[in-house]
Amino acid sequence: MLNKKSRSKRVVPRKRLIIFVPLPGEENYKPFFILSRFINDEEGILLENKTKEIKKEIVSELNRVKDLKDIEKLRVEYLGRKGVVTLLLRKLGILSPEERPKAGQLLNQTKREIEDLLKTKEVEIEKLEKEKRLQGEGIDITLPGRKIDKGAIHPINLVLKEIEEIFLSLGFKIEEGPEVELDYYNFEALNIPKDHPARDDQDSFYISREILLRTHTSPVEIRVMEKQLPPIRIIATGKCYRRDAADSTHSPMFHQIEGLAVDKDITFGDLKGVLTFFVHKMFGKDRKVRFRPGYFPFTEPSAEVDVSCLLCQGKGCSACGYSGWLEIMGAGETDPAVFKMVGYDPEKYSGFAFGMGAERIAMLKYGINDIRLFFENDLRFLKQF
User: Fold this and answer.
1) Alpha-carbon span 20 to 33, nearest angstrom
2) pLDDT tens digit string along 224-233?
């Protein structure tokens, strides 16, 4: 009897399994098997032919797809969890280590090619669907276009812009200041102490005892003079607030333009020349200008400035109270007390100031008889400008 060590071993040839999965749509759609002793070149050719057949079949299927749903269905049939290529890849484990890489490389290449084919077709269909959608959304040029109403600049802004351009041409600069102002700048620095009766004419909206909504743009003049020495030529435009009852000539909010010029040897004649130039530019050279005595706490002497009535040409009518004149602004030489408040020497410097309401100027320029029209947002009114 032979012992275990000397006993001869019987070599049994290893059987290997090649699996082919029929394509969707083939008859008898079930996996079938070919059993052989080994995988040779001929069987490798069989696997290569099968992958070519798969690619040929999917190209044929893609030529018949109509939408993205069909592409997704093909993706599932070939690359899904139970797809043709997936089943083949899962069976690579039964091959020998030497044969597995070649078969895996062939199947992975087939998978990538199928993915590329599906992606290309997907992009093609998306482009066609987009073009179809755009054609459906196209503009029919045979129909009349929809009219879009154009906006226009508000008459108040038109007047403000024109006033600014006139004074800029004279060498003035535009300055701005806060609408919520300190009592000091709004009144005290302008020679209007707390017990001054002039405050009654400018009853305002107070936020606290020392803070209020400004009643005029004159505080901007004080702020500018505090920051720089003469010469100064500025205008200050913006919103102002007073507790006025709304009627045809009054509004609790309005726009004001204040002007200031300070330098050596400025006279009342300079003031008259500047304002006459302004009136002629704003209303026409045929307008007459009249200066009559007036009173303002921050100017001395002071004047009310009138212009000949635009409607009756100075002959007298109901619009001007049959006087032939319309008041447009107040003005005067800057009071020395104001200069002292900002540290200017009133013996060295002199100046003038003026103030006008933009609504008042617009009403005169455009023949508007009610200030409330500016703020009612009535398109029938606004479209006239």
Assistant:
1) 6
2) 999 999 999 9
Q: Quick check: 24 pLDDT over 70? A: no
Per the document, the length of the chain is 385
Decide if 358 contacts 156 (C-beta within 8 A): yes
**57 phi and psi, to 5 degrees?**
-65, -40
In the block, residue with structure tokens 């540290």 = 343
Pairs from 95-103 (Cβ < 8 Å, separation ≥ 24):
95/16, 95/39, 96/14, 96/16, 96/39, 99/16, 99/39, 102/44, 103/44, 103/47
Superfamily of domain 155-382: Bira Bifunctional Protein; Domain 2 (3.30.930.10)
Closest CA to 214 of 251, 239, 250, 236: 239
Q: Are 191 and 335 in contact (CB under 8 A)?
A: yes
- Evaluate the CA torsion angle 81, 82, 85, 91 in order and state its sign: positive
The single-letter code of the amino acid at 127 is K
Domain residue spans in the chain? 16-132, 155-382
Residue type, 16: R
pLDDT digits (tens, 9 = 90+) for 154-188: 999 999 999 999 999 999 999 999 999 999 999 99
